[in-house]
Write a structure and sequence with these properties.
The protein starts with 6 loop residues before the first helix and ends with a strand. The protein has 18 helices and 41 strands. 23% of the residues lie in helices and 26% in strands. A hairpin with a 2-residue loop joins strand 33 and strand 34. The longest helix has 18 residues. Helix 2 crosses helix 11, helix 3 runs parallel beside helix 4 and helix 4 packs parallel to helix 6.
Length: 786
């Protein structure tokens, strides 16, 4: 298939044409392959807020379902949408592990545990590719933190690498993934995109026949990645592959067979997605009708909710007088701040609105905190100078206006090209102008930043300026969307003109963000305390993250909520013990206040169905069937990764912290606040005697309560000589009141094996098989001799 192409034309296929498609090659019958970012939904290839998509529950929410069927259905929904819109590959799922709980992208990750992440990641691959759309699991490997991600080295021993960090990717490959994305970071000193031993494991040992893609702008040379086995440089146009790769082949520095392999893998992917002449999409499952999509996402959000504590408050009784509070009740957070930001198709119902609908006439509302989170300027009452809703965006090249458009947002990113204005590599000026009408009087704060030097003015007065980022940090700067701002006193209803200018010398990526923060609302805590004490039978307190909390290219310093939110929880819980705290956060949250309230419900970033799902669960219409995919320790210091930093050479020593998460707590005899795998529903269960049947664990489970509910049977294995046990398998079961069903948990071969001396071996002796409800609630212990 590649024989008709000379070296230059073959090499041209090893890099993207743009940020979201590969080149066509008529001689090979190849049309462009269209790629799109998509861990939480299909991202606009041009990052245009006018292009909306279904917003999925985040990775950690899907991890909390402990249900491959739910994950598969969500992925099929995304795959169906991608297929309708003409996309061929989706950069998802994120199979890195939440080993610290503090990564800026924890919300994208499925779990801290490799088996749970692997099983659910494989289900995601199956659901997406069942629609004939390639899954591209990422980021291979150990991109588990964001600090200095493009330069840091994850120093990992072979045992942890094989048993922990590669295991989710191995599951994805075994499930038939058609592509993989290599990580930015180094692994033991070598960039992952140029790591020959790493890619040999994937391609040779695992037999992966798909395409290995670089993360965007991850390459810094030609020979290392090419010789290691990287197949496609993204984004395009080519920098280190393409022409440079062709020249390296002609000089004999890269074997022609390596180039042919890369092109063959691209053509194989193209054939699978119908991008090759004579091929059609390999669709193996029925499409998800658009009219069913929102229901699938809402059901998935319901399945992700984890009830961590319930002192008889939930489900809420009919006719209850409800006080809905917290900064996230009317302004929930659905996602973190990454390149993968989604504008939800059809919008999303807030928790407050959903609860008002479910409990009509019985809901009062107080935010409870003085501060109001920052948002992009376009989220407020703004118009263009001629009165149209939105902001005016003007592009200048050489002093000439080349593009003028009305936009609905004020956070913009362009890779390679600004549609209608030309390449981002050309110098120019970007000007945003908006007439802003403050809803309330007070000190408003405006900020601006981007890929060039930014200046922000209000009514002609310069408020702030920010220099251009260093050339080698443009991607990080863009990802973090950092702004510099200042406050100004405004009168309610009196318009002012906001102008932000960004001057760019030209770069592969351009960006501009203009933000706005409303003035604080004094006395919010006192009003909330009074409403909780005087006017409510129960309180639903929705707290958690803002968009800025979890960011690409930056990690968190602590797992705690902001102090104002903690004070709100303590004060409201003190005056009304029937307080339900709903955590709208994409990460494990420190919860020293958990014993001060009646119930704690993990709501995660539940996607666009979050609000409706929350109302259903609180009212008892549905069961909170999720289990914790991560550990919440009693304090951050209990984590083995606490205090872990980069050394002077930007190396992070994973070896010093292994094992992490629930396995570390088991080794140190430390209890968790919310254990890995824990969670309650609205009924109770009894486990019958368990027995081993080869690689199967069998037992009967009985619903001993008064409601239908879901139990998740978890099996952990401890090999001879080990102190901690590892998740080995799980199975969920739905039962009616009084119903008994047989549950079977299958244990794969890796459960018994350990990496030792360069190979997989089964330690001889008795392996303890622990059956229970969580890593800390073990009901029975069996033994298997090897």
């Amino acid at each position: 298939m590649t024989g008709a192409l000379d070296t230059a034309r073959k090499a041209a296929l090893t890099a993207g044409e743009t940020g979201y498609r590969t080149p066509a090659e008529p001689a090979a019958g190849l049309r462009p392959v269209h790629l799109v970012d998509g861990p939480l939904g299909l991202v606009s290839p041009t990052f245009d807020e006018r292009e909306t998509s279904l917003l999925l529950p985040s990775g950690i929410a899907l991890g909390a379902t402990w249900d491959p069927d739910v994950v598969r259905a969500v992925a099929a929904t995304e795959g169906s949408e991608a297929r309708r819109r003409g996309f061929d590959a989706v950069y998802a799922p994120n199979l890195n592990l939440a080993r610290t709980g503090l990564s800026g992208r924890t919300f994208e990750m499925l779990s801290e545990d490799p088996l749970l992440a692997g099983v659910l990641g494989a289900a995601f691959v199956e659901g997406l590719q069942g629609q004939g759309v390639a899954a591209v699991p990422k980021h291979l490997v150990c991109n588990d933190t964001e600090t200095e991600r493009q330069r840091m080295s994850a120093d990992v021993d072979d045992t942890a690498l094989r048993e922990v960090y590669l295991r989710p990717f191995e599951h994805a490959v075994r499930a038939g993934a058609w592509a993989l994305m290599a990580a930015y970071n180094r692994l033991n000193g070598t960039p992952c995109a140029a790591h020959a031993e790493l890619l040999a494991i994937v391609k040779e040992e695992w037999g992966f026949d798909g395409l290995v893609v670089s993360d965007y702008f991850a390459l810094h040379e030609t020979l290392g990645p090419a010789l290691a086995g990287l197949d496609l440089e993204m984004p395009g146009p080519a920098i280190h592959f393409g022409v440079r790769l062709a020249e390296a082949v002609e000089r004999g520095e890269v074997p022609r067979e390596r180039l042919d392999d890369a092109v063959t893998r691209l053509l194989r992917l193209a054939g699978r997605v119908g991008a090759l002449e004579g091929s059609s999409r390999q669709v193996t499952a029925p499409a998800m009708p658009p009219e069913h999509a929102r229901q699938v996402l809402t059901d998935a959000a319901v399945a992700s909710f984890v009830l961590c504590r319930n002192d008889g408050v939930l489900p809420l009784e009919p006719g209850v007088r409800l006080a809905v509070m917290g900064p996230n009740a009317d302004r929930p957070c659905y996602q973190g701040a990454t390149f993968g930001r989604i504008r939800p198709e059809g919008g999303a119902t807030t928790p407050l609105d959903a609860l008002r609908k479910r409990f009509p006439g019985a809901v009062t509302h107080e935010r409870g905190v003085d501060s109001v989170p920052a948002a992009t300027l376009g989220a407020f009452d703004v118009s263009t100078p001629d009165g149209r809703p939105g902001v005016l965006l003007e592009h200048f090249r050489g002093g000439d206006l080349v593009l003028s458009e009305m936009r609905g947002d004020s956070a913009f990113i362009w890779f390679g090209e600004v549609p209608g204005a030309g390449p981002t590599t050309e110098p120019g000026v970007l000007r945003l102008t908006a007439v802003f009408r403050p809803e309330v009087g007070g000190r408003w704060t405006f900020g601006a930043g981007g890929s060039g030097a930014a200046v922000l003015a209000v009514d002609g007065v310069v408020l702030a300026s920010r220099p251009a980022p260093a050339p080698d940090d443009v991607m990080g700067q863009v990802a973090r969307a950092e702004t510099t701002g200042a406050g100004i006193e405004l009168r309610a209803g009196e318009p002012v003109t906001v102008v932000a200018e960004m001057t760019s010398a030209g770069s592969r990526v351009q960006a501009l963000t203009v933000s706005c923060t409303p003035p604080p609302e004094p006395g919010a805590l006192a009003r909330a305390r009074q409403a909780a004490a005087a006017a409510a039978d129960a309180v639903v307190l929705v707290v958690g993250d803002e968009l800025e909390t979890s960011r690409e290219s930056r990690d968190l310093a602590t797992s705690a909520l902001p102090e104002a939110q903690q004070e709100l929880i303590r004060e409201v819980g003190r005056v009304n013990p029937r307080t339900v705290v709903v955590l709208n956060a994409g990460r494990p949250v420190d919860a020293p206040w958990a014993g001060d309230v009646g119930a704690v419900l993990q709501g995660w970033f539940g996607g666009q169905g979050f609000g409706d799902a929350l109302a259903r669960v609180l009212a008892g219409d549905d069961e909170p069937g999720g289990r914790m995919p991560v550990t919440v320790p009693l304090r951050d210091e209990d984590r083995s990764t606490h205090g872990e930093t980069l050394d002077a050479d930007l190396r992070r020593d994973y070896r010093a912290a292994e094992p992490t998460g629930y396995r570390h707590l088991a080794r140190t005899g430390t209890r968790a606040r919310f254990a890995f795998g824990s969670g309650f529903g609205y009924t109770t269960f009894r486990f019958g005697p368990a027995r081993l049947d080869g690689d199967l664990v069998r037992l009967d489970v009985t619903n001993t309560g008064q409601r239908r509910g879901r139990e998740v049977v978890q099996v952990y294995v401890r090999a001879p000589g080990e102190v901690d046990a590892r998740l080995a398998g799980f199975a969920g079961v739905w039962l009616e009141p009084g119903e008994t069903a047989g549950v079977v948990v299958a244990l794969g071969e890796r459960v018994w094996q350990r990496w030792c001396g360069g190979g997989w071996v089964v330690p001889p002796g008795g392996h303890e098989v622990l059956v229970g409800r969580s890593a800390e609630e073990i009901r029975q212990t069996l033994t298997r001799e090897w």
